[in-house]
Design brief:
Bound molecules: FE2/S2 (inorganic) cluster
Number of strands: 6
CATH class of the largest domain: Alpha Beta
CATH topology of the largest domain: Glutaredoxin
Distance between the termini: 40 Å
Strand order of the largest sheet: 4-3-5-6
Helix content: 40-55%
Shape: elongated
Largest sheet: 4 strands, mixed
Radius of gyration: 19 Å
Strand content: 5-15%
Number of domains: 2
């Protein structure tokens, strides 16, 4: 297999790109398939590093800046590795007035990261979100698909420890 200007790939690189080649093989070389290709690539690799985006751009006959334009426009796409567990802290009004910011501070302290960051061991990514529709349980966080409500800063270490 060749890539990126005709350079021959090492065996390790071939292995790395093989899942991407499989994804690309399922789509015609058309710009309208960029989003589904990006979605599948992200599912496969966990995020979209530059070398993957470069490969996608050349495979779909697009410029790298076109691909970056799409990746940076949609929040669903990530260019940095994400944690195994995604912690989303609600910053909606109901959660805010019931101490959501204190819960957020406790989580930041516990994980040693800011919102938008991932822990070094790639176990947690911390994000803030607008109302997640469980205002009756405010303040609320979500860890992956599960909702944790009526939180206090004191409860944070115990909840997070379940995911360590
Ligand atoms: S404001 Fe937090 S769940 Fe609605």
């Amino acid at each position: 297999m060749e890539c990126c200007g005709g350079n021959k790939l090492t065996e390790k690189q071939e292995k790395y790109y093989a899942p991407l080649q499989k994804i690309l093989a399922r789509y015609e070389k058309k710009e309208r398939y960029l989003i589904p290709v990006l979605q599948e690539a992200q599912e496969e690799y966990g995020y979209l590093p530059e070398e993957i985006l470069t490969n996608i751009a050349s495979s779909l006959d697009l410029s790298l800046s076109q691909v970056y334009g799409v990746v940076t426009f949609y929040t669903q796409f990530h260019q940095e590795p994400r944690g195994k567990n995604i912690v989303r802290v609600c910053m909606g009004t109901a959660c805010h007035v019931r101490g959501g910011d204190k819960v957020l501070t406790a989580i930041k302290d516990e994980l040693g990261i800011e919102s938008g960051e991932t822990t070094k061991d790639l176990n947690f990514t911390l994000e803030t979100v607008a109302c997640i529709g469980a205002c009756g349980l405010a303040p609320v966080i979500m860890i992956n698909d599960s909702t944790h409500g009526r939180l206090t800063p004191e409860k944070v270490p115990e909840i997070l420890s379940e995911f360590k």
